[in-house]
């Protein structure tokens, strides 16, 4: 805000006039010996008539500094929010990284223990990522990872959490779902991944995932839930590798 605007705003909002007297004597006194209403204009609580040029300059300087500090604080908060988002998201995919996903899992475990809520954990492994990288390069591998991430986020509920645990491993936390429901959902996600090829450099190539499911019950630790889902996923992955 410019200095002139500040003074104008102060004049508009902080003009104080003495109340009019109902008596003729009071009205006469107002005309003869009363003060000019303009002298009652205040700036930061100080009547303008009492402001010397140096005091006025100092007050406007302080106002500008306060406004600058407010702007800087708002920008700092925005940057902090952006850094927090970056710290919680996978650098390649628009989903949670392992750190954020484990934190979300920990929060859900607390809800399960407190409210006896049902939830399940789904692990998914991108089949043959090393072969894709070795055959077509890492850009093709990135395209495959992006394809899986997009399918998982597009077909998960807002109450669910989707994350990349690292490398070719993904995880989905399904709230209010027992193992039967979660297994059905995991199979549906795997089918959707395989239904469409991953787009890459004007073409496309097929992608598939192996799944593992673990129901999260009251008293189960993060490590136990993740180990159970991971073990089931690796077993399915070995079956796929053996069938090739």
Please explain how this structure is put together.
Helix 5 (129-136) packs across helix 6 (138-154). The chain folds into two domains: 3-88, no CATH class; 98-243, 2-Layer Sandwich (Alpha-Beta Plaits). The chain has helices at 3-13, 24-32, 53-88, 98-115, 129-136, 138-154, 179-195, 222-243, and strands at 42-43, 46-47, 119-126, 161-166, 169-175, 198-200, 203-205, 209-216. The protein is built from eight helices and eight strands, in the order ααββααβααββαβββα. The termini are far apart. It has 244 residues and is of the alpha+beta class. Strands 4-5-3-8 form a four-stranded antiparallel sheet, sandwiched between helices.
SSE layout:
Blueprint: H1 3-13, H2 24-32, E1 42-43, E2 46-47, H3 53-88, H4 98-115, E3 119-126, H5 129-136, H6 138-154, E4 161-166, E5 169-175, H7 179-195, E6 198-200, E7 203-205, E8 209-216, H8 222-243
Antiparallel strand pairs: 1-2, 3-5, 3-8, 4-5, 6-7
Largest sheet: 4 strands, antiparallel
What percent of residues are in strands?
Answer: 15-25%
How many β-strand runs? 8
Mean pLDDT figure: 81
Rg (CA only): 33 Å
Order of helices and strands: HHEEHHEHHEEHEEEH
Distance between the amino and carboxyl termini: 70 Å
């Amino acid at each position: 805000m410019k200095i002139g605007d500040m003074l104008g705003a102060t004049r508009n909002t902080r003009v104080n006039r003495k109340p009019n007297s109902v008596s003729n004597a009071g009205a006469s006194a107002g005309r003869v010996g009363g003060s000019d209403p303009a002298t009652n204009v205040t700036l930061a609580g100080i009547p303008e008539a009492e402001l010397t040029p140096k005091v006025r300059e100092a007050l406007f300087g302080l106002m500008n500094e306060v406004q600058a500090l407010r702007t800087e604080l708002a920008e700092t908060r925005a940057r902090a929010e952006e850094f927090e988002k970056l710290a919680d998201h996978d650098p390649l995919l628009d989903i949670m990284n392992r750190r954020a996903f484990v934190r979300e899992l920990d929060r859900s475990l607390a809800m399960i223990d407190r409210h006896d809520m049902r939830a399940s954990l789904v692990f998914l492994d991108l089949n043959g990522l090393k072969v894709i990288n070795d055959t077509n390069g890492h850009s093709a591998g990135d395209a495959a990872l992006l394809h899986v991430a997009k399918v998982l986020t597009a077909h998960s509920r807002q109450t669910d959490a989707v994350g990349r645990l690292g490398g070719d491993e993904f995880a989905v936390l399904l709230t209010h779902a027992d193992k039967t429901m979660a297994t059905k959902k995991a199979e549906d996600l795997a089918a959707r991944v395989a239904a469409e090829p991953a787009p890459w450099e004007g073409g496309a190539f097929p992608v598939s995932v192996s799944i593992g499911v673990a129901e999260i019950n009251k008293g189960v630790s993060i490590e136990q839930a993740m180990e159970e889902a991971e073990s089931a996923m690796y077993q399915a992955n070995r079956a796929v590798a053996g069938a090739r």
